[in-house]
Structure prediction request, 340 residues.
Amino acid sequence: MNVLINGQAQSLPGAATLADALAALKPTPPFAVAVNREFVPRSGYGERRLQPDDQIEVIRPVTGG
Amino acid sequence: MDQSSPAPQSDALTLYTRRFPSRLLLGTSRYPSPDVLEAAVRRAQPAMLTASLRRQTGGAAGRDGDNAFWALLRRLDVPVLPNTAGCHSVQEAVATAQMARELFETPWIKLELIGDDYTLQPDTLNLVDAAARLIRDGFHVLPYCTEDLVLCQRLVDVGCQAVMPWAAPIGTGRGPANPHALRTLRERLDVPLLVDAGLGLPSHACQVLEWGYDGVLLNTAVALAQDPVAMAGAFADAVRAGRAAYRAGAMLPQDSAQPSTPVLGTPFWHHASAP
Prediction:
């Protein structure tokens, strides 16, 4: 199935979890994640099953005002 | 030094029961370099530093940069105030705040909900809903808002223990655009008020502290100064001066001249003749 990770199309196995998607992305810590505009806590990555066309945001700390 | 003056720590800025040694909150964006940012922070000694969240992009250079900012925040050891900059809906703001809480390990959030991309004016019709949700979720919400009295009152009603009206649009450096409304707000609300956005000069910061504002949050005025480190110090001094002046109690303006030097015994005494 295809999902969007930070706006980029990504192909994942059909029964993928959020943990699987992150294992493929290998984000640099620290990071945090939302799926379809809903926050997913770190403890929930393994349980969160992904659906086709899910929109995953993986964010990092940046400067801000 | 007047021995009757209260000790500085008795006048600490208090937000959500936490006391801060400074009344200046500083942004971390737009500095010429990370080294200048670090030096500016060390000069200003701010109460909090704002930070934000953006998508993680691949590539070694980007990742090194990310880690450098994170390392800088850890090194500076100043409380971090994450923001929800760029959010246009309640759902986006709530999700961003929750991500920030996990990443920065803090309940503090500067709630920005943008209603207009050109002026970066807050979405006043949805801000209260967003604040209420975050308060219920345990956040210490500092809402960036306009100087509208009723909006600010509603933010307090839903549990915001401090409110942050703008002086002028973000990044303009124009100073208070509506002094009357800002002063009215100060008179009507008892919670801590911080002016956030639109300050350009230390005198702007000093001015709002003289009016009784509890602090200021600024970024661009320091970051885009020719010497950001010196300007960081100037703002810190201005905030201290404004607060001290507020506590000292200003004289009332008078309509006519009043000699400050005693008149009695003036040599060569004469009265101006009547016209």
Summary: The two ends of chain B are 48 Å apart (CA to CA).
